[in-house]
Amino acid sequence: MPEHSDTQRLSVIRAGDGEHFDGAGAKLSWKVKAEDAEMRFCFFEQVLAPGDAVPLHLHHYTEAFYILAGTVTFYREPGNRQAFRSTIGDVVVARPTVLHGFANEGDTEARLLSISVPEHQRFFDALVAADREQPFAAMPPEGAMLRVAAIGDEMDSVFARP
Predict the structure, then answer these.
(1) For burial by CB atoms within 10 Å, which of 73, 79, 94, 137 has the most?
(2) Where are the alpha helices (DSSP H) in 45-140?
(3) Tens digit of each residue's pLDDT (9 = 90 or more) over 55-98
(4) Longest CA pairwise span in the chain (Å)
(5) End-to-end CA distance of the chain
(6) Domain limits of the chain?
(7) Alpha carbon separation from 39 to 32, 55, 119, 122, 141 (Å, rounded)
(8) What are the φ/ψ torsions at residue 47 (nearest 5 degrees)?
(9) How many CA atoms lie less than 13 Å away from 22 in the CB half-sphere?
(10) Domain 18-159 bears CATH identifier 2.60.120.10
């Protein structure tokens, strides 16, 4: 929960703080949830271990990524065609309905901020609820991804199917 200053009404989220979620292949910490930003935006820090990836998907809202550590490869088509690498300080913007995915193809951890709108948070909130109901970790990876895709279909995060 953010600290609030009574005199300035500033919120401070300390390093390492935030609501954490580690499931369905995502390792993230919410830094600002929509309800803490007058429902205008949200953002989380995501950690990508070497080999971690977020598959191709799209949504009807903009998402921006700010690279904090490591190198992240972003791609727009299956098979990593039209791929480009981004590193510390780079910003990548995925506009509405643009198919995008990303991966850590390096051998060190990568970290990035994902900045978006409340609808994006709702997708992750649905993942958290589904994980409480039946943990993704107890499922084979293919089954977990199918479940994520089904949730995404309901929450405006449409994942590309092979």
Answers:
(1) 94
(2) 118-133
(3) 999 999 999 999 999 999 999 876 656 789 999 999 999 999 99
(4) 54
(5) 39
(6) 18-159
(7) 10, 27, 10, 11, 33
(8) -105, 130
(9) 5
(10) yes
